[in-house]
Amino acid sequence: MKVGERHYRSIWIEAGEVRIIDQRCLPHQFRVVPLDTLQDFETAIRDMWVRGAPLIGATAAFGIAAQMHVLTHCNAGWLATVDWGTATSPLYQAHDAGIPLHVWVDETRPRNQGALTAWELGAHGIPHTYVTDNAGGHLMQHGLVDMVVVGTDRTTAGGDVCNKIGTYLKALAAQDNGVPFYVALPSPTIDWTMTDGSSIPIEERAGSEVSQIQGTDADGALSRLRVTEAPVGNPAFDVTPARLVTSLITERGVVAPHALATLFPEQAA
């Protein structure tokens, strides 16, 4: 849109910094402000410097990309949804906006769902590295992760998050290393009848998912190999307490877990 003799977007990059139109001042004053730190992006979304679901999503995408190195767990991309995904949506939007970023992709055993995320990112042209599930803490210790972004299968009204097994360990490592831990979720995944995540039932899946692995042979044919004859335990999910979550990313904005109901007053009631 044009303001005076100049064309503006609602968010853009200029002189190496992200800038927005501070919509709190409109229509009385036209004010452009830079967003330099992750806290600036959080404040701009929380305090409504930017408004509207599309712009909120774009601002989150710019904020994530500004941090450059993102670690994600499991597959919360378009293969698991319909298009864009949840945890991966900001990554795609940032890349398409020309912002450089790199994604660490957990393999996510035992079903190796991280391979799906890696396939998605590769098809979209996003730089990424596929790593073992246990590498995340090491990467954080060495300053190679700027933030963690995961999805969720079920979220309590109090902000506890139930996601793929291994998510809790990533949150613990993130807290110990001062790395922000974000959870992206569509509001239908919020269970407003539940406040304590410890009561979420955890699915125990077939042991064969752990004792066998699937891959392709030299001819490209799918095959399965047995890696152990030992008894197997295979819980599919774990619960990350709200105290380990920096913020929840929703279609209505970014919010601290304990304040989730402020974004959805009609549901919380």
TrEMBL record:
One of its GO terms (biological process) is L-methionine salvage from methylthioadenosine. It catalyses: 5-(methylsulfanyl)-alpha-D-ribose 1-phosphate = 5-(methylsulfanyl)-D-ribulose 1-phosphate; 5-deoxy-alpha-D-ribose 1-phosphate = 5-deoxy-D-ribulose 1-phosphate. Its EC number is 5.3.1.23. GO terms for molecular function: S-methyl-5-thioribose-1-phosphate isomerase activity. Keywords: Isomerase. Catalyzes the interconversion of methylthioribose-1-phosphate (MTR-1-P) into methylthioribulose-1-phosphate (MTRu-1-P). Also catalyzes the interconversion of 5-deoxyribose 1-phosphate and 5-deoxyribulose 1-phosphate. Part of a bifunctional DHAP-shunt salvage pathway for SAM by-products. PANTHER family: METHYLTHIORIBOSE-1-PHOSPHATE ISOMERASE. This is S-methyl-5-thioribose-1-phosphate isomerase. It comes from Silicimonas algicola.
